[in-house]
UniProtKB/TrEMBL annotation:
<feature type="domain" description="N-acetyltransferase">
    <location>
        <begin position="5"/>
        <end position="155"/>
    </location>
</feature>
<dbReference type="GO" id="GO:0016747">
    <property type="term" value="F:acyltransferase activity, transferring groups other than amino-acyl groups"/>
</dbReference>
<dbReference type="InterPro" id="IPR050832">
    <property type="entry name" value="Bact_Acetyltransf"/>
</dbReference>
<protein>
    <submittedName>
        <fullName>Acetyltransferase</fullName>
    </submittedName>
</protein>
<dbReference type="InterPro" id="IPR000182">
    <property type="entry name" value="GNAT_dom"/>
</dbReference>
<dbReference type="Pfam" id="PF13673">
    <property type="entry name" value="Acetyltransf_10"/>
</dbReference>
<keyword id="KW-0808">Transferase</keyword>
<dbReference type="InterPro" id="IPR016181">
    <property type="entry name" value="Acyl_CoA_acyltransferase"/>
</dbReference>
<keyword id="KW-0012">Acyltransferase</keyword>
Length: 155
């Protein structure tokens, strides 16, 4: 049995716990401006949260955009969702939390009838996503001053 569980974040408390992980990883560790980290999509996205079984502490989070919300991130491709804001707290890295979050987001995408998932990966994380079946496409670009590549996986 795994030391953590991943679930869709349906409660306000779950979402706030996920936002705290995002703040720790993106704002504090990586220096992303807080006003760029949180956006209007947070209100309509499907959020997932990884929590430690022993005490319920938040270990990681991610979100799925779909439908019209995903169109700007996926080039308007029909049936393609957008995985984003994937963050794992420092002490939980290397435990499989990130991969479990990606698979949970893919499951959420399938449940909504999507056939693929796109993401914008920090270039230093592309190997992680490649191991999960994602393929890079297009040119490298900057997001919040960090180099990224677009990647996609068919479901």
């Amino acid at each position: 049995m795994s030391a953590f569980v991943v679930r869709e974040s349906l409660s306000d408390a779950d979402r706030q716990a996920g936002f705290a992980v995002r703040r720790e990883v993106f704002v504090v560790e990586q220096g992303v401006p807080e006003d760029l980290e949180y956006d209007a999509y947070d209100a309509t996205a499907v959020h997932v949260l990884a929590v430690r079984r022993a005490d319920g502490a938040a270990l990681g989070t991610g979100r799925l955009l779909y439908g019209a919300d995903a169109a700007g991130k996926t080039g308007g491709a029909e049936g393609v969702g957008s995985l984003g804001r994937l963050a794992v707290a420092g002490p939980a890295r290397g435990l499989g939390v990130g991969a479990a979050l990606v698979r949970a987001i893919e499951d959420a995408a399938r449940a909504r009838g999507l056939t693929a998932v796109d993401l914008h990966a920090q270039t230093r994380a592309t190997g992680f996503y490649e191991r999960l079946g994602y393929e890079a496409y297009g040119e490298e670009f900057q997001d919040a001053g960090i180099p990224h590549l677009a990647m996609r996986r068919r479901l």
